[in-house]
Amino acid sequence: MIEAAVKPVVKTGGDLRGLNHSLGFLLRVSQLKVFDHFFKKLGHVGLKPGEYSVLWLIFNNPRIRQGLAAQTLSIKNAHMTKLIRSFEESGFVTRTIPDGDRRAVELDLTVSGRDFVTFHQQEFFGYIQSLNSPLNDAETKELIRLLAKFACVDQELTK
Amino acid sequence: MIEAAVKPVVKTGGDLRGLNHSLGFLLRVSQLKVFDHFFKKLGHVGLKPGEYSVLWLIFNNPRIRQGLAAQTLSIKNAHMTKLIRSFEESGFVTRTIPDGDRRAVELDLTVSGRDFVTFHQQEFFGYIQSLNSPLNDAETKELIRLLAKFACVDQELTK
DNA sequence: TCATAAATGTTTCCTTGTAAACTATCTACA
DNA sequence: TGTAGATAGTTTACAAGGAAACATTTATGA
């Protein structure tokens, strides 16, 4: 015990040498931490963060165009096609080809899709509270503000 | 045209409704931004951020164990095996099985590996300067501090 | 000391996400 | 009009990364 108290704090890993100040590296490690916690807390629900975000977006933007949804969430069109198809198969989302532009696809939630979103809303937006982060509330708020500013994401609640 | 001029300022994307305050979402979007910029600036070099970080780690920790390298960078063992093999093939890294523990693998840079790291060091650590971020210097510094604290990455230069 | 467990990487298979080519539809303008 | 180009989404082919089972070597403990 005395030894443990006396000996200097030794890192368990290798020497990062400047990588510990690299924005790209820190973003990646932070994201891994959030994802780990997400799966521990919400893995049983069966949806990943990005998937829930798609449902959430459609929930709040009925009849949104598939391409706009992809662009808003920074998901590639090719990937969005697959996500939407799987949501169709699970009965959460409907695709409608509007008469005005028959190239396009409008997305909507089914009743069970809306039920799912409302039922899990608290979990998906609140899981981060249980993360036991080293940051206090003010720091967390500031981190979110800085990230949003950096990524040019509007911080107002509604458009 | 008159219509476009008259209509209120409309966001180009859908309404994110709270997702714009989600740490997970903001981390993902921020990382995409950094990666995009990285590839624009350093795509010609042919290494991705994570790959360079592996070389950098070995450069600063000669004879590091492969598993410790993976753990330090939060890279899975299975993935690290593939990375190291490709570095072996490109002649940047050597693998040594130490006599003391014949399960283990020690990593080292070849001469050309060390040359590569030192030659590109400025680019890999400096590309972020050219990102034209909306954050000023103090904000960037604070963002890095908060991310490091959040992810529990030691901010001292050396261990 | 011999069986059992743990540690270290590797292999295999799978999921996620992307790029590029493709189909279908719409717009512009000669 | 009708044709060239733009737009919206899909398909295909692939690369990145991870989970689980595996082989090998080392540590443990009865």
Automatic annotation (TrEMBL), chains A, B:
InterPro entries: HTH_MarR-typ (IPR000835), WH-like_DNA-bd_sf (IPR036388), WH_DNA-bd_sf (IPR036390). SUPFAM superfamilies: Winged helix' DNA-binding domain. Residues 1-152 form the HTH marR-type domain. Pfam families: MarR. The keyword Disulfide bond does not apply. Keywords: DNA-binding, Transcription, Transcription regulation. Gene3D superfamilies: Winged helix-like DNA-binding domain superfamily/Winged helix DNA-binding domain. The keyword Electron transport does not apply. This is MarR family transcriptional regulator. It comes from Roseibium algae.
